[in-house]
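Journal club prep — side note

Before the paper discussion, L.F. wants everyone to see what a predicted structure for a comparable chain looks like in token form. Sequence:
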Amino acid sequence: MAKAGETQDRCTQYALDVVSGKITAGEYVRLACQRHLDDIEKSKAAPYKYYFDVEKSEEIINFAEELTIAEGEENEHVTAYPFQCFILGSLNGWRTKEKSYRRFRTSYVQLGRQNGKSFINGILACYYGNFDGYKYGKIFCTATKQDQANIVFDEVAKFINSDEDLSEWFKVHDHNHTIDCLLTHSEIKALSGDTKSLDGHRAYLGIVDEYHAHKTNQMYKLLEGGIKKLKSALISVITTAGFDLKSPCYKLYEYCCNLLKGVFENDSQFVYIAQMDEHDDRYVPENWIKANPILEFDRDALENLIPIAHTARDMGGEDLRDFLVKQLNMWMQWSNSLYIKDIAKWKACAVLKSLKDFRGSKCYVGVDLSSGGDLTSIAIVIPFMVDGVKKYFVHTHSFIPSSRVDEHIKTDKVPYDVWIEKGLVTVTETLGGIKTDYKYIIKYLEDLVKEYDLKPQLICYDPHNASAFLSDLEALGFDSISVTQTAKELNDATVDFRLEILAGNVEIEGIEVGKEGNKIVVPADGLLVWSIANAKTISNNYGEIKIDKDITTERIDPIDAIIDAWKHAMKEEYRPDVNETVNEWLEQFEKYMNPFQRLGVKISNWWRGEPQDSGGVVTLNSPSFLERIGLKRKGKPTSEVTYFTCLKMLSETLAKMPIKYYQKTDKGIIEAEATDTSKLLSKRPNPFMTPTTFWNTVEINRNHYGNAYVYIRKKFDRKKYGGEIKIVDLWVMQSNCVQIVVDDAGIFAGVGRLWYVYTDPTSGRQYVFSTDEVMHFKTSFSFDGITGLPVQQILRDTVAGASESQAFMNNLYESGLTAKATLEYTGELNEKAKTALVKSFEEFGSGAKNTGKILPVPLGMKLTPLDIKLTDSQFFELKKYNALQIAGAFGVKPNQINDYSKSSYSNSEMQQLSFYVDTELFIIKQYEEEINFKILPDEDADDGYYYKFNEKVLFRTDSKTQMEYLRNGVGGMIIKPNEARRKLDMEDAEGGDVLLANGSIVPLTMAGAAYLKGASEPDETEEPEQPEEKTEPDAEQPDTATEPDETDEAEDEDEQEGGE
């Protein structure tokens, strides 16, 4: 292999610089460069039929740099960037050893926007048109639209018109978009969408600009068909990535990627794909060079792209998708409603299996019937188990009337003829070939069942147009069920099918492609791949979804058939064969149970919600079976009274504290003016919750699961110039449905960042949120500072013990508080007599209904109870000890769980203060820090704004204490009279908005006025004012005031708002 410094040509030098890492490049550019270097080594051996002609390579590069760019104020000579030298030099430099024809006959170049794509094609058109020596050639510049085709044409015209020497060899005709090449009598012509113009012409150079916009490959194929007799012809595709993963361009892109990876071998195909690597951070500017090689040499352009990236990231939606596709050159489906957004996930389902590998299996059949001459599809879904994981194999087949094949090829723009030849579609000839004869479907299913010994459990069909199908199906004798095509009916199946695809639990038939030693498995059914790519989701008013399509020519019939079958296949309960043995044992067991006992078991199962199928199957996990063999499932922690009380106390304590919005100013702390966001926190976080309910729910999740998560839904409020991001509402995410992901590989954006993955428990949809979209509250016990541990996990044994003790008490009451007993008698009893005697005593002595009844004892026998008292076993002491342990772990005081052994009502205020300091203060501080960091904009925080819980509500007292507190506050110049009156829900008094001082109780502004010169002396004859008699607060209140009683709590107006 050539080493750095030994080569003089710019093409090879670029390849060396890329491979050595001197030039930043992505995986596919590195592979293209390595291919170039490897082929140079191969060319040294005689069997390899190509060689690299450095002179020819440099010739086209030198030609390019002799041209003039006519944009801007002054004309400038072209300077080819190294990556452009590599592309042009490779296309012109690689030759056949025999006759020096060009090696590459097709070229695929994919670059980000503004990387000189049209410039490269313009160079090729000029060079091939007049200076390559080929006469009377046709150079076509093609695109879907004339404007796009004219871009390449205009690029060539600019070169010609800006250079006097060059203009002598060309003649430009703008009116019909043609250029005459006077030296070779060749013609350059711009063409759009009209493929008939190409038919019959042999293009010496066919340029396909922005191929991603082409809906079909017709134009490419016409160009390809015209070059097969020309020895040095070239089809040049230069494009950016696109939004349609069903397009012919994406198919060509996938082929070229595999070609570079070594899966395929094609020496006549040139490939240069500039894109970021899979795990690159999308927002690191250095990574953008991989998709935009021109940025390596234009740092100003790289800097200019940074604000564009940040804006796209912040705005999201279409702006972000456009940035990723056009600037970062990433293929991405456009629609948000696409059923499978990453088609690679579906293609990864392909395995080297077929129906013959599932011979004798149970299966579910789905049928999507057409209303006329459209596609009709059948799906076979086979559930099976692998290492305890349920998986599914899916097989589909479609049918189309013979007279409609050509029509659908034209309208749907897909190769039905190829799919028919491969056996993926059956053509129906009967019924005039106008509509599908359902007998073909019945025959196809019947043949599969016989050939592979399949056992259809259900035939699931769309009831629309199904009458004729059902009459034909009746002969097969299979059970069938209709599946109404509504979102409500199909939601669960639609969601589950997608989740199983993403989880890798769906398998479809695949085939191997590629060269020996480097093969890959791809889906065998192209129609099925096309259908899944067409499928989109629509929803009803309740958020339930089903699949649909955009237009009538995008078929989804095979996917409809799969989901019909999936609705029942997903419910298939697979159990090991050991259950058959268990059921046999239970049948024998039930023979010894009287009819009333068996009825009791059935009623018990019905009450638990266990399925009562005709077979009466009971599995090893059934609660009824576990109870029969002496194993009971333990109750949930929340069923334990102390645990529940602690959850209730903590959640309600937080919920009763309203959130206030303040600002620190030069004059002190003031209550800030309400904003839209502060109103969310104080009045309505979302349409369904008050603040009290909202924070109560958050705190329950935090304590029960160890973590609580609140999704902050935001939107960009666009204005005429710019806009701002606003918080719309706040939503509690059920904690056991949230998973925290540390992005240590940079899969999303930024290595080391946290992401929250929420799985909707009703729809199964998954949502990924960044840290700035989620408020995360955790318990105080955490090893990593990221997630908290719940009390139920830390005190698992204690909580379980408390639950068991309660269960013991319940069982004791069920048995009528009767302990075991011994029966003394003389003589021998046979087993039958013993059994009958014990049974009679149990019937009389067990259960609450027998409490207090006298037990009859046969003559000569003595019944002696085993008097084991609960006090002897210290049962209640242990139960109390467990309760105190649970409460202590939560930070709840004994009096708050009704334990007044060491406290009383009289010192409850001190207990409440202790609870606030020891427990609630930490919780409040954590909430306030998270709310202020996640909710409050930085500029507001800098201006002194902040949110704070009003903890005063925790210390509400009786009326007497409250009046004493208010009197001292007013007299001590701490609060104003009207502020005190508002706390009593009284209207403001005139003159009550000033601070009062002690002494003469005058406004602060008049303090000391009596000592000013000229002030009137007091009348000595006037009797001095007697001090006011101290009375109870009730005596001081005016008759019109409504005085709260001792149980009332003092609320200011903000606390009232918080409790709405």
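L.F.'s comment for the group: DSSP finds 36 helices and 34 strands in the chain. Keep this in mind when we get to the figures.
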